[in-house]
Design brief:
346 residues; alpha+beta; seven-stranded mixed β-sheet; six-stranded mixed β-sheet
Chain lengths: 346, 346
């Protein structure tokens, strides 16, 4: 039921969106200061003369990460970055973080401190203070829960996912599919290692995709850019689950349709090479891969030039709801935009 | 590393306090708005003209709860109450909550909704808004992470654990040991059930202790009482781990000693009966049991009468550090106050 509905019931027969909707329908907000609740990347509460954006994420071993090939320092960094990305999607810079861990009996103190090295590095890089948390043991796997918050003075600069308008241009901040492809490479090498324990993982030529999987960064730079250029996107969401799924969230909650031009979706050169090597369609990876931690946002067409000059890519346009959500193929054919609902890790 | 250092490494060889201290020593606070960090029940940040108190807890199956005898609705209620208790210990009323779940494959949607029934009931009873969270699946047990926050306008009414002064009276808000004894009864009935599956649990005559274990309440009433009577305790902490352990936290962080009069520690009549039945010393239970979710606070002696009239119990006095932390026995002998470090559930 995450504010951004990031669920990964890989091993479950529970329909996560049904569950979120049921919880949402039973939730009654009593305090007028709470102006945004369960249905966005972060909740927004008015505190004094500021608006507090707060978000929380949970990561479990075997579902979101595999310690066979994920160094604990990288995991600590990534858990923080994933949560930063949620706040950034509200156009807010995060300031504080709380971390709770349930530590498995396989782990010793050095393991936990390795995890924290990643947390501290992310705190340093993103100007965050670690102000609290909880630790417990776990009878089974390692579990991480991260809560992050930051604030905004100007209410009008907060950006939600349900405010895209017909005619807005759809932009993305970077390229897509690489984190998913990096995961496939790591899984392949793990399989080889399990079958041939004497082998060494071969990660040459996969720097970019493996880096995007193991050490992603969050696009906090975009908050500064928008402020400096006095631009407020009409809607925004972070890409943790997959580009198509996130665009569909914007459209559904904004009650609009869209046209997405597939050939305009940025895909890194190495991602194209790796997807060919693995025999996966690169566009399918880009649309469904997830974990890229880039942002999708919509903006008034008047900002087109400055946004393109900044290096963002325009990949489509917001349409009337009755037009539906569509992908425009290379040959200009139209087909319905769907999320394949891949249960990506993290 | 919880703000209140509630750790339960039952199955681990990690020294939790060593870990917390190491994390704390590596934590550098960059934002001047953060006025209280890892070393209290909740962190405090200045937001606009208000002071935000925020705390987080993690609960794992098999460590903090046993679903054999814990109804999911009760668990939902208790997870929220435990976190409310943290904020209350700062003399702040909680306002908002975020819940993250990692759901095991044994659970279906109805199980999750049963858990949320308890969450919603606690939100109703304690005037809280559920504003966000995250859901994920878990390869193994059920894990719950709760983050709670509230605010205070007047900085001087915030209460920490490191500000007790020599000569202050030590008060408690209720009785101790019952939650632990309730747990022992539930564990005993579980054992009987596992050996004799045809048997029915016998919980007659254990209403109070089992109720304190399965459906605890948090002492938010005390925040209203202090406000109404214009009293600010000199220090406060909630009793989740055990009374002696919490008093020692206050003394250590305030750099003071104490005398605790054992005969003054309130113990419920049923707790005395049950402890006799189980052959456990009731004072040992009261000092080490944990999960009572009462509060220990210190106050200037001038407030003695009004606090006693309110039904709080004075159990001792804050002394100079050089006097040490002592228990005064029935025969007036003095012995060092120690925490047995029982790893209580939750």
């Amino acid at each position: 039921m995450n504010q951004k509905e990031k669920t990964s019931y890989k091993n479950s027969h529970i329909d996560e969106f049904e569950l979120i909707n049921e919880i949402k329908s039973l939730t009654k907000t009593k305090h007028k200061e709470n102006i945004k609740g369960i249905d966005d990347d972060a909740a927004i509460s008015k505190y004094g003369d500021k608006y507090l954006a707060i978000s929380t994420d949970i990561f479990t071993e075997g579902i979101h990460f595999d310690l066979t090939y994920t160094p604990l320092k990288h995991l600590g960094y990534k858990c923080v970055v994933a949560n930063i990305s949620d706040i950034t999607a509200m156009n807010v810079l995060p300031k504080n973080i709380l971390i709770s861990l349930a530590v498995s009996s396989k782990m010793n103190k050095e393991h936990v401190m390795d995890f924290y090295k990643g947390v501290f590095l992310a705190c340093e890089n993103y100007n965050l203070d670690l102000i609290g948390g909880d630790t417990s043991s776990s009878l089974t796997g390692f579990t991480v829960s991260v809560t992050i918050f930051g604030d905004k003075k100007n209410k009008n600069q907060l950006v939600y996912r349900n405010t895209a308008k017909e005619g807005d241009i759809i932009f993305v901040t970077g390229d897509f599919g690489a984190a998913y492809l990096g995961l496939q490479i790591l899984e392949r090498e793990k399989k080889i290692f399990l079958e041939h324990p004497e082998s060494q993982p071969n990660l040459n030529n996969y720097d970019y995709v493996v880096g995007r999987q193991l050490k992603p960064e969050a696009r906090t730079d975009i908050v500064d850019f928008f402020k400096k250029n006095k631009i407020t996107p009409t809607s925004m969401i972070d890409v943790s689950d997959g580009l198509s799924s996130e665009i569909l969230h914007i459209c559904k909650s904004s009650n609009v349709g869209c046209d997405i031009h597939l050939k305009k979706i940025p895909i890194h050169e190495e991602s194209i090479k790796v997807s060919q090597e693995l025999g996966i369609d690169e566009i399918t990876c880009a649309l469904n891969g997830g974990e890229d931690y880039e942002l999708v946002f919509t903006a008034n067409p008047k900002h087109l030039n400055i946004l393109l000059n900044q290096g963002f890519s325009s990949i489509g346009v917001i349409k009337n709801k009755k037009d539906g959500c569509n992908m425009i193929l290379e040959n200009n054919d139209k087909t319905e935009l769907k999320s394949m609902g891949w249960s990506n890790k993290l």
